[in-house]
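Tutorial, part two.
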Amino acid sequence: MNRSGAAIAFLSATMILIVFAAPSAMAKSKRVSGSNCSSDWVNNESAMQCFIKGEEEARNGVKHPHYVACGGGDIFCCTNNDRGDVDCEALAVARPPSRNVLIRAILAAQKNRRATAR
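Running the prediction step on this input gives:
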């Protein structure tokens, strides 16, 4: 492969990484909050169990009941502590593509580039 072909393959790979990595980086910057949840969370069994647990705890006078919170497409079951800190457990995580998926995409782009260069 000549230099221009290698440069194009490198740029293609870089663009693929930017396309796949940028949304996950932006998603991680969002704060977790109950107000960030869409109505979809009720379809998640674990989130519904968290909600029910929080309702029962509130009825029983628990100082910091559990609640469902969302951020960056992820769903959490959270509770606060006396210092105001939030402790959350991930229930449903919108994960970015795995490294293997990204590598396969890069290799496919390179293969396509070689096929069109012939």
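The mean pLDDT is 74. In part three we will examine how such features are distributed along the chain.
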